[in-house]
Amino acid sequence: MATHYTKFDNAKKDQYTILVPGMLPIHFRLLKPTFEQSGYHLEVLSNESEQVKEEGLAHVHNDTCYPALLVIGQFIDALKSGKYDLNKVALVITQTAGGCRASNYLSLLRKALQMEGWEHIPCLSVNFSGLEKDSGLKFTMPMLLRVLYCVLYGDALMWLKNQVMPYEMHAGDTEKVIDEIVEYLKKELEGQGYRKSKKIYKMMIERMKAIPRSAEPKIRVGIVGEIYMKYSPLGNHHLEDYLMQEGFEPVVTGVMDFGLYCIENGIIDYEYYHRHAKTHTFFSLAKSLIMRMQKTFEEAVKKDGTFRAPEDFNQVIRDGKGFIDQGVKMGEGWLLTSEVVSLVKNGVNNIISAQPFGCLPNHIVAKGMVRRIKEAYPYANIVAIDYDPSASKVNQENRIRLMLANAKLNAQ
Question: Whole-model pTM above 0.85?
Answer without folding.
Answer: yes
